[in-house]
Amino acid sequence: VQLVESGGGLVQAGGSLRLSCTASGLTVDDYAIGWVRQAPGKEREGIACYSRNGGKIYYAESVEARFTLSSDDTNNSVYLQMNHLKPEDTADYFCAARPPVTAYSGRVYISHPDSFTYWGQGTQVTVSS
Hints:
By secondary structure, this protein is mainly beta. The protein is built from one helix and eleven strands, in the order E-E-E-E-E-E-E-E-E-H-E-E.
């Protein structure tokens, strides 16, 4: 399994970025898949996740209404559209996936980001003030 992220960079506060994650070795629609970020000196934070169990996309409160997770079955990819970026969004962003557990929705995986099985290498996002 391989997850490859792209799209990070430097952006001014209020700007937008779109992160991409292309998967191989798994079908994104069959897995719980999401985005996790880690800022310098801080713990991992699950920020968005989709799992077919429940069929709903969950977001962390810190990014709700600003970030949007989407998927493209044709390209076996997921995306994270990030709008209205803030300096506190500065972090390394990781695409992550795991086999879904029937009893769990994406909300569980956001709360426990270390439960993801597969991880990309990360892409850096820096938001300047």
